[in-house]
Amino acid sequence: MQSGSSATGSKRPADHTRQRAKQARAIETHAQILDAATYLFSTKGYEGTSVRQIEEHAKTQRGLVAYHFGNKDNLWRAVVDRMFEGLMVDMTHRIEVLTDVSQQEAAPALLRAFVRYSATHPELNRMIMQESVSAGWRIEYFVHEHIRPMLDRFGMVADTPMQTNEEAAQFYYLLVGAGAFIFSVEHECEALFGFNPRSEEFVEKYAENLAKLMYAQKADG
Description:
This protein is mostly helical. The protein folds into two domains: 1-70, Homeodomain-like (Arc Repressor Mutant, subunit A), CATH 1.10.10; 77-221, Tetracycline Repressor, domain 2, CATH 1.10.357. The chain has eleven helices and no strands. The protein has helices at 2-44, 51-58, 64-69, 72-97, 103-120, 122-131, 137-158, 165-184, 186-193, 200-214, 216-220. α1 crosses α2 and α5 (103-120) packs parallel to α8. The radius of gyration is 23 Å and the shape is globular. The termini are far apart.
C-alpha cells in the first residue's frame, strides 16, 4: 500500500507540469488566433476573411477557432474588445497620471496618448473605417459597446464644452481623423512622402503638433 501511494504521489508533480504546459499552449494558441484575426479583419474585412484563413494564418489546427471562440462573430467581438481594452488601459493610466493637472492640460495629453496608440495599433481604425461603410451589427457594436462609452469618459476629463450634435461630430472626426488616419495608410504615406509615419520619432512629433493644433484656441484663450 505504501509503495502504491508513493508511486501515485510521485506522478502528481509530473501531472501538474503537463497540465500547466497544456494551459500555456492554450493561452498561446488563443493569442495567436486573435493576432491572426486582427490582421486579416483589418486588411481583408470581416466578409473577406474566413475561419480557415484565420487558422492558417495563425498556424493552428482546424477547429481551434470554434474551440476557443465558438464562431467567427464571437472572434470578431474578441478582437475588437482586446483593441479597445488596450486603448482604455492606456487612457485610464493617463487619466490617473493627470489627476493633479488642469483640464486644459489633460485634453492635449489624452490626445497625444490616442495618437501613440493609433500608431502602434492601426488595425483599430482600419476596422472601424471598413465597418462604417454600411449599417449593421458590427458598427453598432463598435459604437455602443466601445466608442460611445469611451467618449463619455473622455468628455468628463477633457473639459469638452457643451456642443450641438453637429459641432460634436465635427470635433470628433477632426480629432480621430487627424489622430489615426495617417497610421492607417502608412504605405501610401511611405510611397508619397518617403517615410514611415509609424516611426517613433515621427509619432512623437506628430502627437505634439496635433495637440497644439487641436487645442490652440483654448490655450490662447
